[in-house]
Specification:
The complex is a heterodimer of chains A (377) and B (295). Chain A has 377 residues and is mainly α. Chain A contains 17 helices and two strands. Chain A has a two-stranded antiparallel ribbon. Chain B has 295 residues and is mainly α. In chain B, 72% of the residues lie in helices and 3% in strands. The radius of gyration of chain B is 19 Å and the shape is globular. The chains are: A mainly alpha (377), B mainly alpha (295). The interface between A and B is large, with 47 and 54 residues. Chain B: Keywords: Amino-acid transport, Cell membrane, Membrane, Transmembrane, Transmembrane helix, Transport.
């Protein structure tokens, strides 16, 4: 099975190239408010950033453990409604309410995760869909609390501000949240915890028998993911100011997030961000050009099916493979490294270097595998 | 305290509804048994069949029941194609997750196309016998509900006989129980799996026709069905047909009874509560065997 997280792939694209790309992306995002032609485009940018945060949050579960949740849209909606209700009904200051709502969503995720993650994948997906349906039902029916189908109006945190300024501030807030989510994802990716999660993705039985506390790991990462999702949802509520249960607890939002992450590549740090840029911009464009038609749905379904069938690893790995094909055409050997490269490695390696890097050609007599070679005194 | 007649009527209606749930859950169970696939699109196909029944009545003027002559073979063929052309292409390692996404995508696609072709307007079949009902110990039961239950019962019985009494049924059950062993004794498991999907989807054709008889339909209705159906197969134990049938009847009954004090909307929550309770306390479901342990 091709694995994007194997070390060879990271080297292929080249470190400097990667750094330049990241810097360019960051510069483009941060300067966007100053070159956005009008407030509408800026607000579309906020929406796309919101998708990027949500999709990156989704990727904590989807990317590391391979458990696919279709219910993250509902977790974001819960964060939004919790924030809105805490502001409207309890009279809390906006950002205190946001923090409380984030904790609330994370707390709600504990029992949900407990029920959904004790067994393997299928139940998790079922619970994630059920979560959307049940939250929609409650939000619509409990009208005395949530306002029901009439929606909930959330007062703005900065009342005196003009609309473009409002968009600009929230654009930067979402950008900061995105940076935080990416940073945490990156840290988890490099940690022992992340290693355990990826082991669950590759083979949960083996991971469990090797002593990984699979259930605890899955639960923790699900709660972290839910917390980020709730935070983004709450921030969206403060920005948009008007919550409608049909859009907040929509199965479609959840599927957009999956589509974005999958399209970009779930094993890549920037995969969901790239996917959100592509799908989010596409969504906004179609909304302007065609309005909300049922073909919206059909196109989403078709695109998702195509990605699942033909590009389950995402765009980034596909582009990487394409670049490899053109940039390094000489590498036609079926092996990862050629014999000449091996010899070169052996010659340049300092004596006493980790011999596990060598192929097991010079094993001491009686050694079973390459690893026993380095257990010398 | 509701009157006895009202309670009795609710019990009858609950059992009638439970029959339809049981048929549809049997289809879902079949897919899960064959390929470990949670088929999200099952209820979208259900609504598609309901729309075809409505369309044949409204546009062609034929009785909706006759539309099954076309929809059952059509859905069987679609099921075979779905399994052979799409699901069989997915990598085995990630099959469970990716198949969920793929069937989810198909569900959304169907919903979008239905909305495009028939608009989002709510549709209802106006039948000559639509308002007829019979009295039974003070309870009034609509004839169309009885017909719907009859359809579901006949289809379930046919499915049972098909699985237990025919060579195809034996081959299908062998494929479900142990695909490798089934291959060793000469069963073409790929073909059988395809046909199994066809049979599963044919249940959606029957169910959709039954549904169209007495329900107002609209493109996004399938979300109101997939939730309860998935709850039923989890409570019954993933992969167990009798478990799904018992859970379907039971939950249908409870839902119908809860409608008296709570109203239709809140009564739906019983499915989700049952789902969460089952997963939290008995994740393998109440009737599931070895298979359900790991999913």
């Amino acid at each position: 099975m091709p694995s994007a997280s194997d070390p060879t792939r990271a080297h292929r694209l080249g470190g400097p190239l990667r750094a330049v790309a990241i810097l360019a992306l960051a510069a483009a995002v941060l300067s966007f408010p100053s070159w956005a032609p009008n407030p509408y485009i800026l607000s579309a940018g906020v929406v796309v950033l919101n998708y990027a945060v949500l999709s990156t949050s989704w990727n904590f579960v989807g990317g590391f453990t391979g458990y696919i949740s279709l219910g993250h849209g509902a977790l974001a909606g819960l964060g939004g409604y919790a924030t809105g209700l805490l502001v409207v009904r309890a009279g809390l200051p906006s950002f205190v309410a946001l923090a409380a709502a984030t904790l609330l969503v994370a707390a709600v995720a504990v029992p949900i995760g407990y029920a959904a993650l004790r067994v393997r994948g299928a139940s998790f997906v079922i619970v994630s869909i059920a979560l959307v349906l049940i939250l929609l039902l409650v939000a619509q029916s409990w009208a005395s609390l949530t306002g029901g189908s009439r929606g909930l109006v959330v007062p703005r945190p900065f009342p005196g501000l003009l609309r473009p300024e409002h968009h600009r501030i929230f654009f930067y807030l979402f950008a900061a949240l995105l940076a935080l989510a990416l940073l945490v994802w990156w840290l988890v990716d490099r940690s022992r915890f992340g290693l355990g999660l990826k082991a669950i993705r590759e083979d949960e039985d083996k991971a469990e028998s090797l002593g990984t506390p699979t259930f605890a790991y899955k639960l923790v990462v699900f709660v972290v993911s839910a917390g980020f999702t709730g935070l983004a949802g709450g921030l969206y509520a403060l920005w948009f100011g008007d919550l409608d249960p049909v859009f907040q607890f929509s199965i479609l939002t959840g599927s957009y997030l999956v589509l974005m992450a999958l399209l970009g590549g779930v094993r890549q740090l920037f995969g969901p961000l790239v996917g959100a840029l592509v799908v989010g911009v596409g969504l906004e464009y179609f909304k302007v050009e065609f309005g909300n038609t049922p073909l919206h749905l059909a196109a989403t379904g078709l695109l998702l099916a195509l990605v699942v069938l033909f590009m389950p690893d995402g765009v980034l790995p596909a582009v990487g493979a394409l670049a490899d094909r053109f940039l390094r055409p000489a590498q036609s050997s079926i092996r990862e490294v050629t014999a000449a490269e091996l010899r070169e490695q052996r010659d340049t390696a300092p004596p006493g270097a980790d011999r596990a890097a060598d192929p097991p050609t010079e094993l001491p007599v009686g050694a079973v595998d390459g690893r026993s070679g380095k257990e010398g005194p | 305290m509701p009157s006895g007649a009202l309670l009795f009527q609710s019990v009858i209606l609950g059992l009638l509804l439970g029959g339809l749930y049981a048929l549809l859950a049997a289809g879902l169970t079949l897919y899960f048994g064959i390929m470990r696939v949670v088929m999200i699109a099952h209820s979208a196909f259900l609504i598609l069949a309901a729309y075809l029944a409505w369309w044949s009545h409204a546009r062609l003027g034929v009785d909706p029941l006759l539309s099954m002559v076309v929809t059952i073979p059509l859905f069987f063929g679609l099921g075979v194609l779905l399994q052979r052309l799409l699901l069989a292409r997915l990598r085995p390692v990630t099959l469970t997750m990716m198949s969920v996404l793929l069937t989810f995508a198909i569900a959304v696609l169907i919903e979008g196309l239905l909305g495009y072709a028939f608009t989002g307007t709510q549709r209802r079949i106006q039948l000559g016998y639509g308002s007829a009902s019979i009295g039974l110990f003070g309870a009034r039961i609509a004839v169309v509900k009885l017909i719907a239950f009859g359809l579901a019962a006949v289809a379930l019985l046919t499915l049972y006989l098909l699985l237990k009494r025919t060579r195809f049924g034996w081959a299908l059950r062998a494929t479900i129980q142990h695909p490798d062993a089934a291959r060793l004794i000469g069963i073409d498991t790929d073909r059988i799996a395809g046909f199994g999907f066809g049979v599963g989807l044919a249940t959606a054709a029957v169910g959709g026709t039954a549904l169209a008889l007495d329900t107002t339909i609209y493109p996004s209705l399938h979300w109101h069905w997939i939730g309860p159906l998935m709850a039923i197969i989890v409570v019954g134990g993933l992969g167990s047909v009798p478990g799904a049938a018992v859970a379907a009847m039971l939950l249908g009954l409870v839902q119908s009874l809860l409608q008296i004090p709570l109203g239709t909307t809140w009564a739906q929550t019983v499915f989700y509560l049952a789902l969460f309770a089952t997963l939290a306390f008995r994740p393998q479901g109440f009737f599931g065997g070895r298979l359900a342990q790991r999913f």
